Amino acid sequence: MSFELPDLPYAHDALASKGMSKETLEYHHDLHHNAYVTTLNKLVEGTEWAGKSLEEIVKGTYQAGAVAQNGIFNNASQHWNHTQFWEMMGPGENALPGELEKAIVESFGTFDKFKEDFAAAGAGQFGSGWAWLVKDTDGGLKITKTENGVNPLCFGQTALLGCDVWEHSYYIDFRNKRPAYLANFLDNLVNWENVASRL
């Protein structure tokens, strides 16, 4: 069983009016994400990871930590990360469901404080990586940041929301203004219904 690049859940130009251009999605999804999938399929062929689920590969290669598996982990985790990322955004109005709002307010005080802390995590991630809203192992909500392709699966957490802060995610539209990209992501791009469904 080989992995495949999932279709975007919307047209390439569907997010353009919200600050993520057609060109960004063409590069990010069609080239970058596709490269992770293609490379992963080549790397797992003939190994113990052939036929395993994406989640099994991410958890197994991260915990194993063997140098020979770093390439497998990097490409598997980035395939998983991006598959979630496309689903976590949407072209609709993206209203905040009450259940999710209640959970966020209980954990962070206010929705604005959550956005402030999430944006700070993303802006403060040195180099490439991700900012996350996760349900932690104790059931509470927490904001984290991870380097490169590391993701919440590695720590037994549930990813509710993730934002890619690799430069290829924002440089076409925002150049080097990562904080502006993060603010736009939170204000305009997040599909809060999808985030709520992950609770």
TrEMBL record:
EC class (word): oxidoreductase
Keyword Iron annotated: yes
Reactions it catalyzes: 2 superoxide + 2 H(+) = H2O2 + O2
A Pfam short name: Sod_Fe_N
UniProt entry tagged with the keyword Oxidoreductase: yes
Binding residue positions for Mn(2+): 28, 82, 164, 168
Residues covered by the Manganese/iron superoxide dismutase N-terminal domain: 2-89
Keywords, sorted A to Z: Iron, Metal-binding, Oxidoreductase
An example Gene Ontology molecular-function term: metal ion binding
Enzyme Commission number(s) from the entry: 1.15.1.1
Manganese/iron superoxide dismutase C-terminal domain residues: 98-198
Alphabetized PANTHER family for the sequence: SUPEROXIDE DISMUTASE, SUPEROXIDE DISMUTASE [FE] 2, CHLOROPLASTIC
Its biological purpose: Destroys radicals which are normally produced within the cells and which are toxic to biological systems.
Family the UniProt entry places it in: Belongs to the iron/manganese superoxide dismutase family.
The protein's name in its UniProt record: Superoxide dismutase
Organism encoding this protein: Alloyangia mangrovi
